[in-house]
């Protein structure tokens, strides 16, 4: 899978996407992730990529031309399955959308900023619009990182234990069951006996029952 992220704040991506699972997936050659600075596509000497909104109103709008040039440059090199614009008025992201996107080969993630992008970008260049929840972020960068992280861990071979993504919360619309590790007793706080019994069938049944109970208690909407 290849993910190209277009942003006017490329430095923001240095932390989260250069560590741990994401880093290893890139080292293994399973994932390619490239950050593109929108300012490199500005056509004015001040490298401005935003301008005042026609008709007035507070806030700057990301301009059409640098975004079009950047996307055209990428599309001249390979075919993209989706151009995803991160915006609070997009479709709310969930595991089912993550699973669908994870099957794609090449994705562009476009981060909005300020008051967003020129509407013509959304009409002519963007193929999907995604929000990561009902609250407002300063820009689409954190949302793009959320998407990239959630997609990369679904790419086959990225997780050491291949079944691990399947047992995540939200896969099968169930929350994950509780987990425990050593010691099996501490201050009288005990690990459920079944987990140390060595009885595989009983352990699976316990996990399923716990997952269902947790989902009923915390997220009954997932069971509807
Ligand atoms: Cl994708 N962008 C911004 N700016 N705020 C958000 C969001 C995205 N998703 C939730 N809030």
Give keywords.
single chain, 224 residues, 19% strand, five-stranded parallel sheet, Trp Operon Repressor, Chain A, Alpha/beta knot, alpha/beta, 2 domains, elongated, binds 6-chloroguanine
Architecture overview:
- There is one protein chain.
- By secondary structure, the chain is an alpha/beta fold.
- It has 2 domains: 151 residues, Alpha/beta knot (3-Layer(aba) Sandwich), CATH 3.40.1280; 55 residues, tRNA(m1g37)methyltransferase, domain 2 (Trp Operon Repressor, Chain A).
- It is 29% helix and 19% strand.
- A 5-stranded parallel sheet has the order 2-1-6-5-7. Strands 3-4 form a two-stranded antiparallel sheet. Strands 8-9 form a two-stranded antiparallel sheet.
- Strand 1, helix 1 and strand 2 form a beta-alpha-beta unit.
- The chain is elongated and about 70 Å long.
- The protein binds 6-chloroguanine.
- 6-chloroguanine binds next to strand 5.
Radius of gyration: 22 Å
Helical fraction equals 25-40%
The CATH class of the largest domain? Alpha Beta
Give start-end ranges of low-pLDDT stretches: none
What's the total count of β strands?
9
Number of domains: 2
**What is the name of the CATH topology of the largest domain?**
Alpha/beta knot
Which architecture of the largest domain per CATH?
A: 3-Layer(aba) Sandwich
């Amino acid at each position: 899978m290849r993910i190209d992220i277009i942003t006017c704040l490329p430095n923001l991506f240095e932390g989260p996407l250069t560590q741990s699972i994401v880093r290893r997936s890139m080292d293994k050659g399973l994932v390619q992730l490239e950050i593109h600075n929108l300012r490199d596509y500005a056509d004015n000497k001040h490298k401005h990529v935003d301008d005042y909104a026609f008709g007035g109103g507070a806030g700057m709008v990301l301009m059409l031309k640098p975004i079009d040039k950047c996307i055209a440059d990428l599309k001249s090199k390979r075919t993209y399955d989706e151009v995803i614009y991160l915006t609070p008025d997009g479709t709310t992201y969930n595991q089912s959308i993550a699973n669908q996107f994870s099957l794609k080969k090449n994705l562009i993630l476009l981060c909005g900023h300020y008051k967003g992008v020129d509407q013509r970008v959304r009409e002519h260049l963007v193929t999907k619009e995604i929000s990561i929840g009902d609250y407002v972020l300063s820009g689409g960068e954190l949302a793009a990182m959320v998407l990239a992280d959630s997609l990369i861990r679904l790419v086959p071979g990225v997780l050491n234990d291949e079944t691990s993504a399947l047992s995540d919360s939200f896969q099968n619309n169930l929350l994950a069951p509780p987990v425990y590790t050593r010691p099996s007793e501490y201050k009288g706080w005990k690990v459920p006996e079944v987990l140390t019994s060595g009885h595989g069938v009983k352990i699976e049944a316990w996990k399923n029952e716990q997952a269902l109970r947790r989902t009923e208690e915390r997220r009954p909407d997932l069971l509807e």
